[in-house]
């Protein structure tokens, strides 16, 4: 009997159930796309290029696992221990062991990579013209660079800002596919080793003897040298390309950070759509109750209908979800946060989890949505079949009020806790306020309509009067359209506003803290000690401060539990700070930063770690090296220059290239132009000091683009949900529109009434969205810059509010036209 009713219910309510199918389909699409990103972060990667011929690639462990089991991708290349190379060479199953070093060079302003000639066997490269290099000034170029030169020619290559001439003695091509990620030159092994800051190899390629599989050899190597990482098969790309590990961590972070928000919104949309769908069928359920149906039978009927429809929608959402993941991957690659050739992993687990989660969520939503229709008496159900239930449940109201109060309280955290650590409160507040608005939406809309309704009713327009009256009597139906719009606007404003506030303050700190006249770089390869010496000896130069930037993972105890945090770190020359850089020191002195056992912290980092002057801080540098240093100073401009500062020499020893990133140069009075001309003639790139970007600016811009891409996906989903909801809500009013026309209203007047209603809806949604975002953004601004007025992009904010508002107006107008296509006589006798 129930199965027959289920089939009949689906058949008779196709229009209503299509709305739910669309909601589940798009929710599954979103969950699948984010799930693919997370899985790709765990198992995706890059195909090997230069190391394609080696059976096993051995490198340092590029991941740091903190005491609290958080995983961090190390940004600098971890060298292979010298004794590890000897231990691998004596393994019985290793037929050949080849060490490799990668050195950044520049040729005419183009970044290229240099290697020792012995590493050519890893692809393998082979000489097609000429011979291998034998002297320190000889070089072999690959097939890509061969087009720029010829055998026997002399070319100028730069390392660390110092140019030298090399004679091309050979041209090498790879058997099979030519490596395309970078152009390569080969020098003698001794020359390549001399360029490396660590001396030894950074990567080792191992060839297995006949009959031994790569996986067996990898296990043997790891058993012999457990402190190294081994890579086989496609995973060799992770050993070859340092950015592969960072890309994996980035995808996991992106997928995880947005998954919570996206799934929360998806569940809200599915529940809201299902509630609206069941609300449209009040008369049907009332009649079933009147003829003896029990509450359990109503629940079973709804649950089975939803299971069928949601199951179909979830399955249909899988393929678009996989396509969405590919689109997001392309966007992230364009933003520069993952390599353009990073391949996603399309496994069955993310789609399966998404389908199961959305079907389960729809069942839970069905139980909640059908609760009132199943429990109230048949007489009350028949009464409510003609009107929208006026009141929101007490429990829902209480939870909404509590969450709203908590959200406002969390927004005020920066008023009592200083620094960037306090912005965690407002960020959490935004989510709390969004949920609160979702719960209190009908009540808030009813109050707002009561305020706006009076002016509308006194405009002297019949359409305005009808719009105000309908909005007030059906506030819950209007709230179903307003709340998703408001949530999208609020979420978008918080995301965009937070990025703008942080970027503006970082730029302000950087510009205020640079007191040098010039910024000098050595091109793509950085600045060596020799290059810095050349700059120092340039006439008119007063002081030179070489700067290297990297990352450090600081471990500390917070609230009794071990925790870790990754911070930007800079290496500077404290002796040159006086006329080149002002970090805003508030305690101690940077003169005491003398070696790798002394550091300075920003005020924010000191507050987060609980470190004070004289305390010891333990951290892992970019190559995984452990340092324990004493805090000798604290400063305020951490966003502009990095949260940790140590000496240039100490930090450079733990970077991949061992070079400085740039140098800040102060000049004698009136000599700036002369110095700039001299350094330019010497081959350096010289810029005005205002060209210096704040620490982490590149990462912030990339993260900003990533957030915008993910935000666009979520807002796109919200837009689909809004259109879906408006179509459902408007479809419920067929008989209402028909009755209005029977009593004398023209089609034009009905459409005018709906236009006014749509304007009321988008205005209320915009106001609610701005209010949701206002308190968190003010709190974030106070925490970051100390200013209560947030520095946000008006153009981006207007684009978010305007685009969603326009979507709402257009959707309601099209839905109204679609409903009014039928003749009034046909609709007045409809079953609704």
Automatic annotation (TrEMBL):
Residues passing through the membrane, by range: 17-38, 258-278, 306-332, 352-370, 398-417, 423-441, 478-497, 708-730, 758-780, 792-815
Swiss-Prot/TrEMBL keywords: Cell membrane, Membrane, Transmembrane, Transmembrane helix
Keyword Membrane: yes
Main location: membrane
Membrane-related topology note: Multi-pass membrane protein
Domain called ABC3 transporter permease C-terminal: residue spans: 257-378, 709-814
Subcellular location as annotated: Cell membrane
Claim: Transmembrane helix is one of the keywords in the record: yes
Name this polypeptide is given: ABC transporter permease
